[in-house]
Specification:
The chain is mainly alpha-helical. 53% of the residues lie in helices and 4% in strands. The protein has 2 domains: 3-60, no CATH class; 70-226, no CATH class. Strands 1-2 form a two-stranded antiparallel sheet. Bound molecules: zinc ion.
Length: 233
């Protein structure tokens, strides 16, 4: 079937569905996916997509676009960090770095990764900032993560440009800057280890990304056109 014919068929199909009662009008919104949309909302995200596209959306901030890989983003983070250092006395740079420092400082006590279960997404987002503080993460590195995402999207002609995608992508980078909770007990062959990494997905990423976006908003407004090109480290 040609693209055009497929599109026309889909159009007719959508029209047909619109006339059906709403409980039947319930297919995944991703073009080309014919699976039924999810019925449940146990994670509070949405019911627009089938299970696998909803899951992808939760993890990556887009129902079908993959996340940028660490290696792809690295040259942008390096360039952003160099740029931040070169412009550290700039009012807008200082503002963003100070705001991130405030997010780290005002995030409350550190929560062990295995105690996060049952907390609200807001509280888990706070815990994520507290974890970064405990790991003594440089606030400039956190700002650089946001800039890197702005820059890689700027350079990617096929990029997903929705704010939510940016937030999730930046939050994923930031999330990896702090490690999980690690415990070790016992001796010799009886040694037991526990490694718990908070899961980086869902609404927590959106909360972390939104706070970071706000912290960097004035800087981006002012300097969007001055952001550097990627640098190989
Ligand atoms: Zn789907």
């Amino acid at each position: 079937m040609t693209n055009w014919a497929a599109r026309r068929e889909r159009k007719t199909e959508v029209k047909g569905r619109a006339q059906e009662p709403s409980h039947i009008f319930n297919r995944c919104r991703v073009v080309g996916c014919s699976k039924p949309a999810r019925a449940g909302t146990e994670d509070g995200l949405d019911t627009r997509f089938c299970r696998s596209h909803a899951d992808h959306y939760a993890r990556h901030g887009s129902p079908y676009r993959p996340s940028y890989g660490a290696r792809e983003v690295a040259p942008y983070r390096v360039a952003a960090m160099v740029w931040l250092e070169a412009n550290q006395s700039d009012t807008y740079v200082r503002n963003a770095v100070d705001r991130v420092a405030t997010l780290l400082q005002s995030s409350g006590p550190h929560v062990e990764a295995f105690r996060l279960r049952g907390l609200s997404p807001q509280d888990r987002a706070k815990a994520a900032w507290a974890r970064l503080r405990k790991a003594a993460v440089d606030p400039r590195g956190v700002v650089a993560a946001w800039l890197a995402i702005e820059m890689i999207i700027r350079d990617d002609l096929q990029a997903e440009r929705k704010t939510e995608f940016k937030r999730v992508q930046a939050a994923k980078l930031v999330h990896k800057m702090a490690s999980g909770t690690h415990k070790r007990w016992g001796e010799g062959s009886n040694v037991k280890e526990l490694h718990v990494y908070p899961r980086s997905r869902g609404r927590v990423l959106r909360h972390v990304g939104e706070a970071l976006e706000e912290a960097c908003a004035l800087l981006i407004d002012r300097h969007r056109a001055n952001l550097p090109t990627a640098l190989q480290s």
